[in-house]
Specification:
By secondary structure, the chain is of the alpha+beta class.
Length: 155
């Protein structure tokens, strides 16, 4: 599956993937409206040197994307979303592994992830551990699983 750098002109397309993927978990309209700003991909973020946004293609179409925000010695998996009709087909795993490999190549020691509760099992399966919780940026009083992936243990 091809994974390539995102282009700034794809910001709206990627935002659509993020919104559809979040809605997949059955969140209501009020929840989705509250999350809209947080799930919006900005063309400037795609262009930022400290951010790496990649797109997974399947059949020549963008089917998922991930955003790595690097702040050595650590980084954050800021976003990882897959089109709902492609969930469970390996796109998320491919994106996660790609971001992990980019982070290692950058010399990062760990990645943190503010996970949706529905995605926690995925990140655990990918080798991350839960290290606590973090407040949602969109929903007051909501806590999200805070995950961590060690990239270079013992370094």
């Amino acid at each position: 599956m091809p994974i390539r750098p995102a282009r700034p002109d794809e910001a709206e397309l990627l935002t659509g993937i993020a919104l559809r993927a979040k809605a997949y978990w059955g969140y209501d309209e009020a929840f989705m409206a509250a999350c809209r700003e947080e799930l919006t991909v900005d063309a400037a973020v795609i262009e930022r040197a400290s951010t790496f946004t990649v797109v997974a293609e399947d059949g020549g179409r963008a089917r998922g994307f991930a955003v790595l925000a690097a702040a050595p010695p650590s980084g954050e998996l800021a976003m990882l979303f897959v089109e709902p009709d492609r969930i469970g087909r390996g796109i998320g795993r491919a994106l996660f592994r790609h971001v992990r490999d980019v982070a290692r190549a950058l010399g990062l020691r760990r990645l943190t992830i503010d996970s949706d509760p529905h995605a926690e099992a995925f990140y655990l399966a990918m080798g991350a551990t839960r290290i606590g919780s973090t407040p949602s940026l969109s929903i007051p009083g909501r806590e999200l699983p805070l995950m961590e992936l060690e990239l270079n243990p013992g370094v």
